[in-house]
Structure formats: C-alpha cells, structure tokens
Amino acid sequence: MRTKMKTYRRIILTLTGLSLLLNLIAFSKGFCDWYTDHIYPFIADGLGRLTGALPFCLTDYLIIGALLGGLLLSVLLILLIFLRRKPKYRRFTAICFRTALMILVCVLTLETFNWLIPLRGSVLGQNAVSKQEYTIGDMRTALNLITEELNSAVYAVGRGENGRLLYPSHADTEQRVFQAMQDFSAEYPRLAGYYPPVKACVYSDVLEWMGIGGYTNPLTMELTKNKYLTRLYEPVLIAHESAHHQGYYKESEANFLSYMALRASDDAFLRYAALIELYFTVAEPFYEAVEAECEARELTAADYLAELELIMPDQRMWEDLNNSYQEKEEVYQADSHPLESLTETAEQIAEVGWSTQAAVLQEYNYEGDFVLVMEYLSGEMNDGTKDAA
User: Fold this and answer.
1) Lower CB count within 10 Å: N or C terminus of the chain?
2) Distance from C-alpha of 180 to C-alpha of 193, rounded to nearest angstrom
3) Model-level pTM?
4) Neighbours of 245 (CB within 10 A)
5) 11: part of which helix (H) or strand (E)?
6) CA distance 35 to 197
C-alpha cells in the first residue's frame, strides 16, 4: 500500500512540476514557437489519428463523464459528513478523490502540451503583425477590393434552376477545406500536415444556444462542429478549427487563416464563403468609423458614403445569406430538443464565457482578425500582387 502511495505521489509531483516548469519557460515566445513547430505536431497528430478513427465524438462522452464525476464527488463529500466514522467509507472516498486528482493533473498536463504553449507563441508564428491604426480610407480600399472579389464570386458558384446555391456534401466540403489549408502552407508552414475529421457534436442544440460554431478539444485533439451551422459558414468553421489543430490557437489567427486559405482556393464555393466573412470583418469596423466621422462632421451617412465611392455587395449575396439561415432553421426545427428548458441557462453561461475569453485573449480574440486581415491586404496591395478586378 505504501509503495502504491509513493508511486502515486511521485507521478502527481512529476506531472505538476513538469507543467509548472513548461509554463514558466513558455514566457519565452521563442520557445513556444519552437515547441509548436517541432514537438506539438507529433502529439496533436498522434492523438488526432487515434480519436479521428473513432466513429463517434469521444469529447461528447468525456463531457458527460466529467459532469457525472463531479456530481458523484459532491455526493461522496456530503455523505462523508455523516459517515466519517466508517473507516471503509473514508478509504473509498479517499480513493475516489485521489483518482479525481490524478485525472485533473493529467488534464492540466495535456492542456499545457496541447494548448497553453502554442497559444502563448508569437502571432502566426512569425511575430510580424504591427499595431498600426487603419484610417477610413485604408478600410475603404480593402473593403472595395473584397467586394469586387465577392461580386465576382457570387456568379462563379454553382446554382440550381431556381437560382439557389448548390452545396457540396459535408464530407466533400471538409476535404476541399483541408486541401485549401494544405495549399496555403506555402505562406504559413504549420498548415502542412495531417487534418483530423470534423465531427458533429451530439449536443449541437446546446452549442447553438451558446452561440458556438465548434471547438477543438486539446485533450483528444478532436475537431467538433455545431451541426446547425449555415452551409455558407460551414467551410469557414472547418478551416478555423483545423487551424487550431495545426497550432494556431489564438482566435484571431484561426479566423484570419480560415478566410485567407479559402479565399486563395481554386474552389468557387470555398472562395465565396470566405469572402462573405471577410466582407463583414472589414465592413463592421468601417461603418463604425464612418458613423463617428459623420457625427464629427455633421454629415449624413449616405452623403459621406457617396463621397467615398464605396462598392456595394451584389443583391444575390444577401439572398444567399437569407436562404442559408432559412435552411438552417428548417434543419433545427426538424430535430427534437429535449434539453430546450436549459436554453436560458446556456445563454447566460455563454455570456460569461465569451466576456471572460475576450478579457483573457484581448487583441487575440475573434475581433482581432480585423488587424490581421488589414495587414495582409495592405501588404498584398502595396506589393502590387493583386490584379485589378
């Protein structure tokens, strides 16, 4: 018994010490980048291949296990108040809590290896992004470029006789996205390599209520998606989670890479999906800046926008978006939702989660993709590499 306890303590102390040491070293972005480039792929791809071979989403069942385990430990702790004089019950409770501690330490160790170190590296592994402020003129130039490409893409995608978009199958979309990410590795080398399949979450209704499109689990390296995504957003979400798997864990990085990799693809549907997201990424801060400028100059928005000669998206894009939301709603309504009573609770938890994430990641949160996009497009136009539309 003493030998087992010594071994248990040794494992706990070793894993805890290793995690603490690595987190201390990870204050060096250089170390984090080196680790993500040379060590992380072996762990991520190894786990990804194992869990990717499973016909179900292991993450879903681990979440159930964690909830049930937490409930069990709470009950055991309450019962201990009344049964503390029973030696057998105390020993049983101690074993349960030691097991829980071992699981927790192993989880924190894996989180360190598979998430915390890559997350703390430099932006895009290149540390090349500036803190430059962009003027309305800069944003207008980028927005016009994106809109020109978007208005070409809207007529390049496949359509049925009724004019509605023809979507590839889910499996086909996934493979096209993986290929686009691989092709973009010429600019961002980490994108080369293995991509695990993206699995639909069993609890997609809960993700939907929480406003979550998908997530990457660092413990299993499974890529998970909300099955109620619009078909127009699905390629971008798959690309986003795939970027996480390749070690780009900042949300701004994953957004940026998903947009640009799909935009560079030869596939018309992927390009269209990415350009729609790119348009809104630049349009939202642009219109916020325009509103502030109009107030300062006492101009109407219409007059100022006419002065800027802004190119507007083709009406077909708005129709495609509306159709995609209607189709999503039909899919959602066709399913039963036994947990629907938890909708409000899920929304409240999500609100706290999103605000906490934004506070922790700061400029690397989702909205940080704007700076990365502007930096990339500015360089592209300044280098003269973009042909006129």
Assistant:
1) N
2) 12
3) 0.91
4) 28
5) helix 2-25
6) 24
